[in-house]
Amino acid sequence: MTNICYPNKHELLSVEQALLEIRKTIETVNESEHVDLPQALGRVLSESVVSPIDIPSQRTAAMDGYAFAAGDVAAGQAAKLQVIGIAWAGRPFLAQQTPSQCVRIFTGAVVPEFADSVIAQEQIEIDGDTVSLPLDWQPYKNIRAAGSDVKQHEELIAAPKKLTARDLSLLAAAGIEKISVKRKLNIGYFSTGDELVALGEPLAVGQIYDSNRYLLAGLLSDPNHTVSDLGIVADDPLKLEQTFKDAAQHYDVIISTGGASVGDADFVKQTLEKCGQVNFWKLAIKPGKPLAFGKIGSCWFFGLPGNPVAVLVTYEKFVKPGLEQLAGLPARQALRLRVRCDSRLKKSPGRQEYQRGILYQQAGGELAVRLAGQQDSHQLKVASQSNCFIVLNADSTGIDAGEMVTVEPFSAEL
Ligand code: AMP
Ligand code: MG
């Protein structure tokens, strides 16, 4: 079954339309699991978390100094206070106090009940057990109120969210040991092509090493994924069909590279059509025009182009947002910057282009970009040296050196 979203078969689907199709089709996995905090880094929180306690749970000192009651000292006057004990972090001072007394206190220690002010140790003078306050001492300073970070029953983190190190420390501060996260996605990927050779084998004439599986292994590395390398499949419709059908039983998502175009050895789209459905196929993007997106049973399928740089671009622009949606993350967009471009960029109108660039900081601090090198979609060295995409809209006819362009740094999102 083909569910073509573009009316005429020669028309290419725009990048935006294709992304919209992915976003409106893919539904988030339902299942969740409980994990310990150290295992939760990068996972997708599936239930919002509420704090069982105030953080901090008591009034505590914000710095090392002396805790006293402001009412014991007349405003605008120097005063002398007697030190009657020490409040350590973790070891509160519990004895009673009489007027004009104070307690030596350290950062994080519970402020004794009588005190409402802490003066920093740098501001006082000490002589034996007597502390002299300066004329300009200030009341009610340097005390962190109970709940001044988070109140009991307040929402700590709203789901869904990909958990960061900052989130884990917040959860730990609330004493939370386990949380509920979306289950991991099972992803299988393979390469297609009679010319492909696995690493470790010698190359015969006309053969190339399969680099796409290594690109995909790196791109797919994520705590929300369990990935399986399914190897190389020949350009043979029967073998392809068998692989599709087997993989669809085991995985949430299958990703293939190669064989997605219209050559005589390109069987991916027709096999997908036979085993499942094709949601879209040809896109107005460069590199990466042939990209078959669809479904086999309950398994999502991305048939990426064969050229390695096209794999990089189509993974970032379509597969990644699709996987994030499946994993339960809210839609995000790549961080885009407008910067001056040192290079002249050639482009024919028609397809949105993702040229490989090198974003760098000039001596004055401004960012600028230059083309990383030639832009053919087999050129992995240029891709390896690049650190951003330079994005040129479909109708652009290129730019002259010195003009402003839009860049998307790799791995930076809003
Ligand atoms: P295809 O989409 O199958 O026509 O492949 C387009 C180009 O990408 C051809 O030059 C292929 O040899 C190359 N290619 C396909 N698959 C891979 C792969 N796994 N690793 C490296 N290059 C590939
Ligand atoms: Mg091929």
TrEMBL record:
Enzyme class: transferase
Catalysis: reaction(s): adenylyl-molybdopterin + molybdate = Mo-molybdopterin + AMP + H(+)
Pfam family, one: MoeA_C
Domain MoaB/Mog, chain residue ranges per copy: 188-325
Protein EC: 2.10.1.1
Keywords: Magnesium, Metal-binding, Molybdenum, Molybdenum cofactor biosynthesis, Transferase
Needed co-factor(s): Mg(2+)
Biochemical pathway: Cofactor biosynthesis; molybdopterin biosynthesis
PANTHER family, alphabetized: GEPHYRIN, MOLYBDOPTERIN BIOSYNTHESIS PROTEIN
Family to which the UniProt record says this protein belongs: Belongs to the MoeA family.
Its job: Catalyzes the insertion of molybdate into adenylated molybdopterin with the concomitant release of AMP.
NCBIfam families associated with the record: Glp_gephyrin, molyb_syn
Name of the protein described by the UniProt record: Molybdopterin molybdenumtransferase
Lineage: Bacteria, Pseudomonadati, Pseudomonadota, Gammaproteobacteria, Methylococcales
